[in-house]
Amino acid sequence: MDLFRKAILRRGSPEEFALQTVQEAIKPQRQTKLVQDENQLLENILRSLLQELVTSAVQSGQKIMLYGQSIDEDETVHGQIPRLLDIVLYLSEKEHIEGGMIFQLLEDLTEMSTMRNCEDIFGYIESKQDVLGKPELFARGKLVMLRTCNQLLRRLSKANDVVFCGRIIMFLAHFFPLSERSAVNIKGVFNTSNETKYEKEPPEGLSIDFNFYKTFWSLQEYFCNPPSLSVAPSKWHKFTASLMVVLNTFEAQPISDEEGNANYLEDEAAAFNIKYLTSSKLMGLELKDPSFRRHILVQCLILFDYLKAPGKSDKEFPSEVMKEEIKTCEERVKKLLEITPPKGKEFLQSIELILERERNWVWWKRDGCPPFEKQQIEKNLGQGVQKKRYSKLNLVHSIFFYKIALAGETY
Q1: CB-based burial of residue 92 (10 Å sphere; 0-12 exposed, 13-18 middle, 19+ buried)?
Q2: Whole domain around residue 250: which residue ranges?
Q3: Sign of the CA dihedral with 48 first, then 22, 34, and 176 last
Q4: What's this model's pTM, rounded to 2 decimal places?
Q5: What pLDDT, in 10s, does the model give residues 203-242?
Q6: Cα–Cα distance between 26 and 20 in angstroms, integer?
Q7: Residue 400 falls within a domain, yes or no?
Q8: In this structure, which long-range contacts are made by residues 54-61, counting pairs with CB atoms below 8 Å and at least 24 apart in sequence?
Q9: Domain count for the chain
Q10: 141 CB contacts (<8 Å, ≥6 apart)?
Q11: Cys bridge to 260: 63, 153, 195, 341, which one at CB 3.0-4.6 A?
């Protein structure tokens, strides 16, 4: 361990001394690559050293990624822990040690750190994304990295740490290939814990119809759990009855172009509503808000799309009566979206395109998530195919001109 303590204090690139340090510390059977037992011994040493450095950083009151920082010849500031990680990352990349070791150290580091320090640690992970994503490392550590990120997300507050959560999700989206099954909700499980709370008893001095208020917000119970509608006909009837009341109200109280332009918020921040307020006192104002109406109507289209999609078993297929009711409701919803200003037609076209792509995504998952990547066609083979295609094209052109000549026409 003392050899690695000295190594993290050395200046220069890890390639100048990293392998030599491992050879002196482990004395491996091979000169450039460790065997299994040697890898395990090295991992134990590094994990112990990492824990020791974190403990020292906490006791000193410094951020752990800045603890024991030094400045090299290029005036770059390095902490001892990032320096240790750089050394291990270099050794893993060059396959001198087991490729998953760097991922294990990063997981240990996040588990030992507070969320304030984890943000700095994750910044290091983001900066090394290209190296960590190389095939020789990715195959060894992808599950550990996924577990590390999921643990961080569980520890973060979805309300107060939105930016950090977004960084983690964006990292996972870039780190894993698009066809990676571990990053996909294969079964299409809905977040039924996303409960929308609203008032059950009318407050005093309420100026709107409280029954409509309850009917309106009760729709959220079905939006967050669409499968419940296909297995329980009574729920579907209750849902359609409530939806008809809401659609009738929207149709009876259309928003004019002037009102739409006045109430529509074009500010970019206005597009990021996590939840709308459900106070009964706001119901009248919300009904005049085009963004609010669109929010509800788009939820309807998403639910209809789910119900129309064929399931894996016959029980999941909607009945013929249900299909007709879905079609009728869907037409009314689209009509309302089209007449809701501003730019109702353009908005509806965008939503339809998004839903079409979502259907393709659902089918891809139901087909077992086949990889998107296609094998590269060899150059010589590609040239042969191209020549063959050109010869067929010339043949078609010859036949075309031959027919023209027979018809006595000029081109």
Answers
A1: buried
A2: 210-266+273-367
A3: positive
A4: 0.64
A5: 887 778 999 999 999 999 999 999 888 888 899 999 999 9
A6: 10
A7: no
A8: 54/81, 54/109, 54/112, 54/113, 57/81
A9: 2
A10: 99, 100, 102, 103, 104, 132
A11: 341
